[in-house]
Amino acid sequence: MTKHFHGALNRMTLFTALLTAGILYFWAEFIQISIANIWLNGVIIGTTLFGIGLCFVQIFQLLPEYKWLHGYTSGKRRLALPPHLLRPVAQMLSSRPRQISASTLNGMMEMILLRFEDTRESSRYITNTLIFLGLLGTFWGLILTVGGFAELIGNLNFSDETVLNSMQAGLTRPLAGMATAFTSSLLGLGGSLTIGFLSLQVQSAQNTIYHELEDYLSAHTRPATTVCETEILPQINLTNHEVTRHVQTKQE
After folding, report:
1. What spatial distance separates the first Cα and last Cα of the chain, rounded to whole Å?
2. Nearest Cα to Cα of residue 181 among 40, 7, 75
3. Which H or E run contains 101?
4. How far is CA 111 from CA 42, 63, 86, 115, in A?
5. Suppose 145 and one of 114, 126, 177, 224 were both cysteines; which one would form an S-S bond, judging by CB atoms 3.0 to 4.6 Å apart?
6. Nearest Cα residue to 143 out of 189, 184, 187
7. Which CB contacts under 8 angstroms, 24+ apart, belong to 69-74?
């Protein structure tokens, strides 16, 4: 079971290491991209780093859940309660009943699934925030570009012999706007892809816990009994027995 946890953790670590190595290898280009708009790009980079740290915190928070589930399925009776996700299920199974009902199993699985969904919301929000920041930088840069070209054309005096020099000097603001648009989009999309991949590995580890617990509890679940089986069938058997005894009495 823990091999799935270590596999997800190793993929996250390898991906982060490759990303770090790529940034260090293209460090000069990365600095140029970052300083195109230091404030917006700094916010995007900071949000990405926060999301990476959050994903690693979430994956390490699953380790006690793995340990508890492994001990429970191995038959150990004295187990410390898991910290968060499986705590309600652990409290319900503390008596270790031999079998549970199908409705109890469904309730447990829904409870765990809701807790897993709650933990995924934060990483999803960070991913959407990075996409929003990238789009914000794009539109911001386009506004600066259009405004810069409008100002440049409005200030040009085509009768002046130095109009080309004035045009060259006035292109600074439009080009800075284009740099803001492209660099923020690049960093925003790259950050969202990074957080999306890491959160996918966390989700894979959570799904492993969910399926392992579901498989184990399904093997110890009583089939659901209908009203017909619990109430009507005993009455039919009793009536059948009475009829059979009456017929035997008549024959004698």
Report:
1. 67
2. 40
3. strand 100-101
4. 39, 19, 9, 6
5. 177
6. 184
7. 69/1, 69/209, 69/212, 69/213, 70/1, 70/2, 72/216, 73/1, 73/212, 73/216
pLDDT the model gives residue 52: 95
Three-state SS at 29: helix
CB atoms within 10 A of CB 177: 22
Sign of CA dihedral 214, 218, 221, 224: positive
- pLDDT tens column, 96-146: 555 666 677 777 778 888 888 888 889 999 999 999 999 998 888 888 777
Please enumerate, as own/partner, the contacts of 81-85 that have beta carbons within 8 Å and a separation of 24 or more. 84/115, 85/61, 85/112, 85/115, 85/116, 85/119, 85/206, 85/209
For the record, the structure tokens of 184 come out as 């923020």
Tokens coding 179: 């740099």
